[in-house]
Each structure stands twice: as structure tokens, then as C-alpha cells.
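Please review this pair:
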Amino acid sequence: QVQLVESGGGLVQAGGSLRLSCAASGGTFNSFAMGWFRQAPGKEREFVAGINWSGGSTYYADSVKGRFAISRDNAKNTLYLESNSLKPKDTAVYYCAAREYRGSTIVSSLARYPYWGQGTQVTVSS
């Protein structure tokens, strides 16, 4: 069973940047498609970005397209989310998630990801 640990969250001013990381252990990292999700207070958890097992395919929610970039380093068993031009509405707990799949299709449904990290808080001040 894979374990996921996020890091890199914090407080940043609007327009700033953060790089989130997700370290994976307990599984074969390059067998997993990965995703970033977020949950703001009082709202449902939502898809942010996804990447396939090789890093060759990515997919973004419209709300972050052009500002966020998802990537992975399979040699380091680590997933990343580079978030730029941050806005107050990006404030949320950010979670990484994994699903064992070696195809190119990226899914945005939370229910398709059985493995989750504990989350890291991102707060964007105006």
C-alpha cells in the first residue's frame, strides 16, 4: 500500500508562488497515476491537476490552467505542483492522491483515487 506525504504549503501573498511536493513510499511509484486535489473551508474537495504514470500526460482544472504545473520525478518517488500567480480563492488544503494505472488517461473523479495524503495548507492573502 502506498503512503503519501505532502509538504510545501504555507502563507503567501496574492500573486506569489508555492511549490508543493508529495513524497510516495510503500509502492512502485511509476505504476501510479497521480493527482492534486484541494478543499476550501465549507466546500467539497475538487480536482486540481493530474498526471499519468510517466509524466507524459497532464490535465488541469480550468480554474488553474496556465497558472499551475504538475510534474513528477519517478527516480525520487515524488510528485510536484508548481503554483504561480496565486489568488485568495486558491486558499485550501491541498491533497495528493494516487491510483494504480499505467495508461495515459487522467481522471478527475475523487472516487477513482484510493490513496490519499494528509494534506498541506495553502493560504493566499489579498
